[in-house]
Hints:
With 551 residues, the protein is an all-alpha fold. Helices cover 74% and strands 1% of the residues.
Amino acid sequence: MSGAWFWLLVPLAPLLAGVALAVWRDRAIGWLWLACIPALALVIWPMSALDLPMLWDGMRWGANDDLSRAWLGFTALLWGCAGIFASSSQANDSRRMRFWTFWLLALAGNLLLIIATDALSFYLGFSVMSLAAYGLIVHQGGPGPRRAGRLYLQLAILGEMSLLAALMLRSHAASGDFSFAAWQALPMDGLTLLLLLAGLGLKAGFWPLHVWLPLAHPAAPAPASAVLSGAMLKAGFLGIWRCLPESDPLLSSWADVLLAVGIFGAIYPALLGLCSDKAKAALAYSSVSQMGYLVMLLALAWRHPQQYQAMTVVLMLYGVHHGLAKGALFLAAGLIHAGRLPLLGWLLLAVPALAIIGLPLSSGGAVKTALKDVWHSGEFEGWLVWLSLSSLTTALLLIRALWLLRRDARDAPAAGPPLRQLLPWALLSSLALLLPWAWPALRDPMLHGLYPGGIWAALWPLLLAIVLAGLALKSGWTVPARLAALPSPALWLSLRLKRLVQRPPLAVPNAEPDQPRWRQRERCWNRFWDTGALAMSAWLLAAMLWLGWLW
């Protein structure tokens, strides 16, 4: 029992790091990545789960299954590498204390939701992570980040309320039991399923709930984008996997529709990303496209519950592979602005992109082979051609992203990037090649895919994409102006909502030089209420509903 208490350090270490930041300030920034060490240590040396019934019945923290340990491992590793990167890239940022405050809060929430085996702990971690991510998105200031942050916050609050309502309905069906283990044996109803998919899908960012991602990633700093895409998006799928039963007639009847959504969600966002003129926006659309693959996997699990364990293994492999590879690509987007990369650096930068495409002998090749294996064992064989088409669009989009990164690197300083940024990025990039040889769960499907037909199936989308990209480059093809300026319906609705809540229009305050300190604090407090009143109102409403239900 004594060892179980170490699980408390997983979410508390980032909060203790926040205390150190408040006391030692700049001297503590270089060591904040150590907040991920307890999580990594418990992945290597797992302890028995920690029960805390004194807080609420069924409260339990731990990662005692392969899926949770793998999820906790890659999440902590990504946050740690991105934290080391950010300690250098944000060193001259005048608002770095605010950045690190939101960073540590989001980290604590992300780690908590992974080790939570009950719904209330999961919801607490999910909410802290989701709301703290707003501070990372708007950190750089200006119209673009504020616009992206406003849309994100509106959808995040909508998702929080949908998720809370779904968890309340689910716990009511379980007679007040909040443990995920008890929910696995309960039948699912349509309303709860819709609320769960809406609440968790908005964070997972799959089509059509992805609308905040293409705006948020270009606005956020590179290390924030890395953890947002590599770690936070996966939290939505982890929640869906845990909250839903392994076998249910309703889920099976929805499998065809979900598979169609996943295939469309893998192809259509990739085509939208080809029209983007920003590297981080193209990478954001790539993340949306990759989430479509996880939706396909979810559909396969719903239709074939007898293969649920095999699907869980594929989900675990896909989460680890995509989290580390996409985190490396987003860090590269910040790295190229810090200094020029040599040829070897560009070759290393291409490794995670090729892994996501599915290059043999990489983590992506192993995951694509594992996905095809479970696909062939089901009744969706006729849909397999769409999986190949999505591989082609993925390859085209990532070639486009690499070209945009190369274009952005022309303005980089002549000196190389700082070592504190180069080393964590190089580690994440190289893991796409090293991890399959070190981890048997990835090595077995990697070797299984090395037969001639498997190699050709993995290579032809990449080869065709290279030919098409070469033809486009040689002909001087550019994105048509109409496609480059596609309107965003979600952004239009967000602006309409902003105008609605500001009627009558807010008066512009007169500039008052040399204001007393009390007046400056009052203005800060008023600005806080302008941005936070909606969020606090939603929280209060949710708390009242919950207390009323308990009563």
